[in-house]
Design brief:
Helix content is about 30%, strand content about 25%. It is of the alpha+beta class and about 350 residues long. It starts with a helix and ends with a helix.
Length: about 350
């Protein structure tokens, strides 16, 4: 059964008036690209340089093409927007909708914050490309388009009415991005929309750019990754890879060294340590938490006053059972809770408060 034949509200518009549509590459002005860049030789958007990703691990090199955290900002008075996207394959999972894993989310930037316009997502039958056309509100408006959380994007273009104005989008605040490093949860699994990762929600609230370096199942605190983070201009670094450490021994062997490599490169950048939210389902949960708390405590004892600690048990609170799709990966309620708790720590660090 195709539900669209019964309920047309589930249908998406794939018709485009090509004769009256002008297409733009989002990698060129006046568009502003954040969180990803286009690698022309590999013909895909990436989150970090290929050579660096390969030096971390083979799997990180693969996941580097997942466009989690990618965004493009622009303004237009067009009455329609057409999205044309190509990708090598669809990221199909049993517990994450295509709207989050492989779809794009368009939001309008308003004086009160970002307002959802729509999601543009592939259908199951869209093997390697899709095209969607959606109406816009009319008048000159500013938009943010969020890239998929778990899909590679080989190419994309945005189409506007012929004769429409297309210009720069709303700028982020003039400070360096917030950098997040961590697991599948950090990457955004299993949000229903690309703008519902906890990093995107924090960004929406404070209009600060961010870089998502979540690598599903493969954030293991490698020294090469710590060195890469140390070379990035950032206003805050959030270290959230507890979930991907294979065991407590691995976490103990890598966590403090990871922090020290980063701190040696950036002695003034605030660091937020986060422990995993599904603490109660892990026999090593208590030990893992104390390992990360130990890194934090020893940093304080050594005179580092620009560190903060987020106890993962507080992320979901009493809503633990309602905040995940599978006992591990957050649903949208879970990501909202994470944005609330981690967001407080991030905003505190930006203000110079670490309590």
């Amino acid at each position: 059964m195709d539900i669209r034949e019964i309920d047309p509200n589930f249908a998406q518009n794939s018709d485009a008036d090509q004769e009256n549509t002008v297409y733009y590459a989002v990698t060129e002005p006046p568009f502003s690209l954040y969180g990803v860049f286009y690698e022309r030789e590999e013909k895909r958007f990436l989150r970090m340089p290929s050579a660096v990703a390969a030096s971390v691990s083979e799997n990180v090199a693969i996941l580097n093409g997942n466009t989690a955290g990618g965004r493009v900002r622009f303004s237009t008075d067009s009455s329609f927007l057409t999205l044309a996207a190509r990708y090598p394959s669809l990221s199909i999972m049993s517990h994450m909708p295509l709207s989050g894993s492989s779809g794009f989310t368009l939001c309008e930037n308003t004086p009160r914050g970002e307002k959802l316009v729509c999601t543009m997502r592939p259908e199951w039958r869209d093997a390697d490309r899709f095209l969607r056309r959606i109406p816009l509100g009319g008048g000159l408006r500013r938009y943010t388009l969020y890239f998929p959380l778990y899909n590679d994007v080989s190419d994309m273009a945005l189409g506007f009415d012929r004769g429409a104005r297309v210009g720069r989008g709303k700028p982020y605040r003039s400070i360096a991005p917030i950098v997040y490093y961590g697991s599948s949860i950090t990457q955004g699994g299993c949000a229903c929309r690309a703008d519902h990762s906890y990093q995107a929600l924090i960004s929406k609230r404070n209009n600060i750019d961010f870089i998502n370096l979540g690598f599903s199942g493969n954030a293991k605190g490698e020294a090469a990754m710590a060195r890469y983070l140390g070379g990035l201009a950032c206003s805050v670094a959030v270290i959230d890879y507890d979930h991907n450490a294979p065991n407590a021994e691995h976490l103990a062997a890598t966590h403090e060294p990871f922090y020290k490599i980063f701190r040696a490169a950036q002695p003034e950048t605030p660091v937020v340590f986060v422990t995993k939210p599904d603490f109660y389902g892990d026999a090593e949960g208590e030990r893992r938490l104390e390992i990360i708390r130990g890194t934090y405590s020893r940093a304080l004892a050594a005179g580092d006053r620009k560190v903060a600690f987020v106890d993962g048990r507080k992320l979901f609170g009493r809503l633990q059972a309602e905040c995940t799709v599978d006992g591990c990966h957050p649903n949208d309620m879970g990501f909202y809770r994470m944005a609330e708790v981690i967001g407080r720590a991030v905003n505190g660090a930006l203000r110079g408060r670490y309590d």
